[in-house]
Amino acid sequence: MRLTFIFLSLYIASAVMAQGQNRLWYDEPAQEWEEALPIGNGRMGAMIFGGDTLEEVQFNEETLWTGEPRNYNRKGAYRYLDTIRLLLEQGKQREAEELAMNEFMGLQSETEDNGPWLARVAAERKKEDGAYTYHFDDADWGKIPVPSYEGWEEVGLEGVDGAAWFRTTFELTAEDLKSDWELDLNRVRQYDYTYVNGQLVGHEQGDGTKRLYTVPKEILREGTNVIAVQVINLVGKGGISGYKDTSIPIGFKNAAGKFISIVGEWKYWIQDSEVPKVGTFQASYQPFGRLKFRFPAGDTQEYERSLDLETGLAEVQYKRAGVQFSRVYFASYPDNMIGIRLTADKPGQISFGLAMETKHEKHQIWKVDEQTLAMTVDVKGGALEGTSFLTVKLDGGTITEQDGQLQVRDAHSADIYLTGATNYGDYKTLVPDYIAPAQAHHQKVKKKTFSKLLKNHQQDYRQLFSRFSIDLGGEAQRDIPTDERLHRFESAADPDLVALYMQFGRYLQIASAREGTHPANLQGVWNPWLEPSWGSKYTTNINLEMNYWPTEILNLPELHHSLFQMIRELSEAGRETAREYYHARGWVLHHNTDVWRGTAPINNSNHGIWPTGGAWLLTHLWEHYLFNQDPKIIAEYYDVIKGATLFFKDVLVKDEQTGWLVSTPSNSPEYGGLVKGPTMDHQIIRALFGVFSESAKLLGKDTALRDSIQTMLPQIAPNQIGQYGQLQEWMEDLDDPDNKHRHVSHLWGLHPGNEINADDTPELVEAAKQSLRMRGDDGTGWSLAWKINFWARLKDAQHTYTMIKMLLRPASKAGGSYPNLFDAHPPFQIDGNFGGAAGIGEMLLQSHTTFVDVLPALPRELPQGEVRGLKARGGFEIDLKWFDNHLQQISVKSNAGKPLKLRYEGKVVEIPTKKNKTYTFDTTLNLLK
Ligand code: FUC
């Protein structure tokens, strides 16, 4: 036993010493979720807080969502298609949107009649001594901060929907009673009944309506006044929201300009949280649970927590009373488990209590055996449940179970095994008995030694991660904690942080989705909220695609398959949507999807009716082919590509005014409402038609269809340059130079598309640049990331770097990065991490035209560097070195034997290549060997 103990400690120590440049580290435990460190295996994700006395490991399993398999499509919606088109044609956008809102949106999940429930909660308003009255005794109510713009969920009422009361007081003088007052609550989610001194002063429904109520002087009192608000929240975020700009207070004002703020701690009482079901368009990704460790308190020294991107291990180290404690955490893909090992450098030092917890109201925790707990969670109002197993194996010491918690005493080391599964089968089915296989899986994992699991994980992880390396110099900064580096980056040079950010993107890519898993959702695989923003689902008008921008260029091609599998499922689900909404062949996906593969329009007709989601996704298949040159992928997905093509062949209509083929109705995400012919659609459809034509040629299929698509291609509405020299967002020249919207959809053809490029369309490049200047640099996290890619494609190195700096700013309302380097929309959204990593790649290498462009947008701030394993279209794998802002050497390995056209600072070399041969060139592209 002693021997194993020594071996374990040595193992951990060497793991620590082996850490190189690719490391996030901190000298304090995480307080906030966005400071915790993510681990994941594509199926399970966990956030490590790293507490020394109280440790939390919040975890997820990718298939735990709200909702159930159901029909998302409104039958016969196509009957309204022509009228919607006609209304748009006649310039009646509002009418078109209204009709579409009523007849053309997807089906929501079941909505129960809420009449009886509303009547029940209304009773309190009718009671003589109800919660609204002046003298009501709220002494035993809870306390809560008001307002809370992001919902009462953020201030303690997570998971609560229903009727709740809020009360507070304010003081008035005799002078104040001379005039009426106005009460401004701004936003309330969703109904309010607002009382002052027991009198109803206002009632509104809906999140959007501003609450501005007159309070007549007759009901006011000198001294203490009481405001009481009944808030009824049937779904989603709840509470008195106030203003988005939280510096604007809610409160009372009078004509004399006096303002009394009522921001602060109020009393609250949840009257009834058994709300009837409210339909939603799509489902939300759910948290699963958390492990809570309680260690004996003590004085901590030399604390450090870290995430090593090279090994895929999170670690915590600290000293207490001369004992060195170490923890290692990882998520293994081959064994589908999360492993945690706790060790100390002296025997018998490991003692802790361990509990499983969850935010799901309906859950059960039970003891499986002396060392194993299980937890089943049931998603409220949905069909899914999940079960997770937790085993602790000790070296030395004792373990007992007490009140659903495990107690470990005096062990030399403890190994923790966490697994989890749900009853999700696929997007159409549930698995009736999932617990038995889940338990069998846990048993199997439990039998393996921790070292074996760790080894499997490391082997698996490293073969992906180690294919690519980047060194931009500036390694001295590595001694500074990562959160501190982020702060300094605003004003000080830290090229190594740029390299770290890129590798962190690759790490997240490996951790959030793998072969056979679902793709990375808006938050990858990490989510602690029951009501995550945008459901933590899949938005396809930029976000999901951005998640896969680094996949090829940063050398992780097999990870693209998680997306491809989803595309196949969407193509099946989207057939009915094509038929019912457009009377068309093939398949369609609109701007969002979820775990049940919804494809119909959702949310609102002003942005939900956007038919090019599937077409955009398909370009990823083609990119995969271009980078890897293996036609297998095209053969495998040809039917899916053809299906999307047939859809647009059927739905493009000839515009009477211009004679062009246009996409209508649609939207330029997510601006300008429902329109005919947004530029982005036409760019995407041209790309899709190109992909289809090339695919059909490659496979020698469908010559006639190919010919007809070729005939249609030049008829599709072209890119146009408008009055400001800008690329037009729409068919009409309507762009507003002051519009700073986060989406820059009409530049799709510049990136990720390629029809706008300096070689072929220099005037459009200038127009795109002008559009981008008009839009400005600011934006949400993903918007900043997209602009890195845009400016790189525009070959403006310094502007590219400006955007990198903006993305790598400490998170604020203006986007940026959290201390754990997660991208801030805000809130956390993973797309920016991926878009940012890809954009740094675009700065170093581009291959979207016939050239492979070397260092096309290298900023002054990154004068030297060495990169290994970048990928270029044509099946090339590239190593390059530069110094003093000049290329030193470049080696190109040809994986497919295709001709190579390399370009650097205007010089071009063109050579045929042999498969698997490497070609090395000097500073001016002379072939060395
Ligand atoms: C789109 C964007 C939002 C957000 C959401 C998930 O709707 O416009 O900014 O990223 O997706």
From TrEMBL:
<dbReference type="InterPro" id="IPR054363">
    <property type="entry name" value="GH95_cat"/>
</dbReference>
<dbReference type="InterPro" id="IPR008979">
    <property type="entry name" value="Galactose-bd-like_sf"/>
</dbReference>
<dbReference type="InterPro" id="IPR049053">
    <property type="entry name" value="AFCA-like_C"/>
</dbReference>
<dbReference type="Pfam" id="PF22124">
    <property type="entry name" value="Glyco_hydro_95_cat"/>
</dbReference>
<keyword id="KW-0732">Signal</keyword>
<feature type="signal peptide">
    <location>
        <begin position="1"/>
        <end position="18"/>
    </location>
</feature>
<dbReference type="GO" id="GO:0016787">
    <property type="term" value="F:hydrolase activity"/>
</dbReference>
<dbReference type="Pfam" id="PF21307">
    <property type="entry name" value="Glyco_hydro_95_C"/>
</dbReference>
<protein>
    <submittedName>
        <fullName>Glycoside hydrolase N-terminal domain-containing protein</fullName>
    </submittedName>
</protein>
<keyword id="KW-0378">Hydrolase</keyword>
<feature type="domain" description="Alpha fucosidase A-like C-terminal">
    <location>
        <begin position="846"/>
        <end position="916"/>
    </location>
</feature>
<feature type="domain" description="Glycosyl hydrolase family 95 N-terminal">
    <location>
        <begin position="24"/>
        <end position="109"/>
    </location>
</feature>
<feature type="domain" description="Glycosyl hydrolase family 95 catalytic">
    <location>
        <begin position="450"/>
        <end position="844"/>
    </location>
</feature>
<dbReference type="Pfam" id="PF14498">
    <property type="entry name" value="Glyco_hyd_65N_2"/>
</dbReference>
<dbReference type="InterPro" id="IPR027414">
    <property type="entry name" value="GH95_N_dom"/>
</dbReference>
<feature type="domain" description="Glycosyl hydrolase family 95 N-terminal">
    <location>
        <begin position="282"/>
        <end position="425"/>
    </location>
</feature>
<dbReference type="InterPro" id="IPR008928">
    <property type="entry name" value="6-hairpin_glycosidase_sf"/>
</dbReference>
<dbReference type="InterPro" id="IPR012341">
    <property type="entry name" value="6hp_glycosidase-like_sf"/>
</dbReference>
